[in-house]
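Objective 1.3, modelling of assemblies. Example input:
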Amino acid sequence: MYSNKFMEHFLRPKNNGKLEDFDFYGKAVHSVDSDEIVIYIKLEGKIIKKVGYQIKGCPRAIAASSAFSTLIKGKSMEEALNISERDIRKELEFYDEKFTCISIPVEAFKKAVEASKNE
Amino acid sequence: MKKIYLDHGATTPVLPEVFEEMKPYFLEKFGNASSLHLFGEEAKKALESSREKIAKLINAEPNEIYFTSGGTEADNTAIIGAALANSKKGKHIITSPIEHSAVLESVEYLQKNGFDIDFVKVDSNGRVDVESLKNMIKKDTILISIMWVNNETGVIQPIQEISKIARKHNIIFHSDAVQALGKLKLDASWVDILSASAHKFYGPKGVGFMYLKRGNKVNPTILGGGHERGMRSGTENVSGVVGMAKALELCYRDFEGKHEIFKKWKDKMIEKLEEIGDYHINGGIVDVLPTHLNVSFKGISGETLMYSLSLNGIAISTASACSSHHTNKTASHVLKAMGLDHETIIGAVRIVTGLDNTDDDIEKFLTILESEVRRLRSLG
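Predicted structure (tokens):
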């Protein structure tokens, strides 16, 4: 059912954990499945230097959070905002659209960006 | 990697002795039990001796046993067939919200066809509230259908109490015993109709039976040939029936000894849960099968734990997932009816031990369970 890339992200999630030193954070909860993620961002200039996250959820939410963290790390905020659910699916080689939990890290990141604007 | 199967509520392996007993009925004894020649007679003899064996084990008469293709068909026939056969007396049926979908969809079908259905309340452990059931009885109640044991929690229902109530009011009492038979020594005479499935008790898939107490009426739902005394048409699955009878016989051999082993394993599991902490046993621990443990770990999705264990070679199950592969069902209807909170429902996993497990299996499972629960909790 899942690809090797998916399994790798699920079994050994990259960048997992809360950042003690972060610039802003965002939280998202999946409305149906109750998957919950808090994402933390640390910038260096305009570049995302560090990403961290805490995740409670299904295997897809965990793998998606790990994949998303690797996709945005080292990118500018503008570039990171263009990373979509589709990019995560590509990274995980998981294309079953019935599962919407893949989008949860994207939502959390958008909330983090909004929060940063309000600061 | 050694695989460990702890999902005996879903299905069980066919025991080697069962397979051996079935083999001749695929090869040299392949006759159609309806044929009048020697091959047919041989098949018919095997069918009838299996019927006698099963009847004796559940305290029934052989002519009260009707072979079916499994539990779903037995449930469908029992409920729809009993409702149709007794519709002149009334159209009210009582069941519970924690039944298997084979029962729930049967009553839903009847509701769409003019029957009146009421669902009895269950308590927080998923046990049917007998007082609430009593109060639901009307003059036109013709059928009560309550499962013997819940498939998700292993909770044993108060069948004998319900039986007394049904009898007092002259109402037909059906029980889906698919999860119970072989795991409990049950007395079919407590109920009027009972459904069972062989693959849940170490027999083959695709065969089951309906027990119908003499004097009760059920209309057949599968027509064309008049097999099974007109109750269930279709060429009999002789090898399957032979396997089913042998499997039940083996389940009941040293039943108490097997029960003790299951209890010992369950006690070990509960000890481990105490060490891990932050857990909830869904259905409690009183009047629950010793084979079954339904548990939620705080902060972990049941699907994630199931998947993590599967990657370690261990099979357990969960009734709740983001989206099932067959339906859009998102959470267990059983745990919902018990009034559990969403996190507990999403976190639930079911562990069901079986005859093929060993002490080593349980030890290894508990070690991996603990490390996976700790790993997954550390992510959040």
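Helices of chain A lie at 4-11, 59-72, 77-81, 85-92, 104-118.
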